[in-house]
Amino acid sequence: MDRRTEPFILDFPSSCKGNTAVSSAQQPPESKAFLPLAIAILTVSDSRTPATDKSGDKIAELASQAGHRIAVRRIIADDAECLRAQLRDWIADPAIDVIIATGGTGVTGRDVTPEALAPLVSKPIPGFGELFRMLSYQEIGTSTIQSRAEAAICDGTIVFLLPGSTGGVRLGMEAIIIPQLDIRHRPCNLSELLPRIRHEH
Question: How far is the C-alpha of 153 from the C-alpha of 66, rounded, in Å?
Fold first, then answer.
């Protein structure tokens, strides 16, 4: 049989069944109800205080507007060991579903948030950083290469590392994180995977 005539089959994971090329008008109605998640917000900064933490405020504002619950917020200086200890505690807390950190993702000596998270990562989510920098390029051009924004699964918790700028936080939250934390988002999202992630880790 000529290989060129063999059918080509697309195989999607169970959480992403369906043809992504189908228009929204052709897709069946979504029956799932919104599922609020418990979010911990970590601001990484040597200088910010609760009164000046605009980036942490923006995360809380957008997450709350989307229907999620802010479980806890904290500001910690740019110290890898202190950051890792806090991240480890929140990852181990079954009451926290998602951690969103802002700050410490640049390229200077004091930017250590990715290094703090690295030993705790079960599975990296490289697509987050790739997509964030692609979208950021449209706003700030080649300056986006200085961002080491990333995401990962850490045991049963989803962790996002965002830049310290309010603009970077807004972009990451609105364009990627909020949609991926919405269980109704099609064709698939991270929220609906949480039960499996927690069961399998």
Answer: 22
- CA nearest 188: which of 10, 59, 16? 16
Cβ contacts of residue 155 below 8 Å, gap of 6+? Answer: 91, 92, 120, 122, 198, 201
pLDDT value of residue 31: 64
Strand partners, 73: 41
Mean pLDDT of 86-114: 97
Contacts of 96 by beta carbon, 8 Å cutoff, 6+ apart: 38, 39, 40, 71, 72, 90, 157
Collapsed DSSP state (helix, strand, coil) of residue 195: helix
* Residue 47 CB burial class (10 angstroms; 0-12, 13-18, ≥19): exposed
User: 3-class DSSP state for residue 30?
Assistant: coil
pTM summary value: 0.85
C-alpha to C-alpha distance for 124 and 118, rounded to whole angstroms: 9
Please give the DSSP secondary-structure letter assigned to residue 68.
-
- The torsion defined by the Cα of 74, 80, 81 and 86, in degrees rounded to 10, comes to 30
In sequence order, what are the beta bridge partners of 134? none
Q: 113-172 pLDDT, tens per residue?
A: 999 999 999 999 999 999 999 999 999 999 999 999 999 999 999 999 999 999 999 999
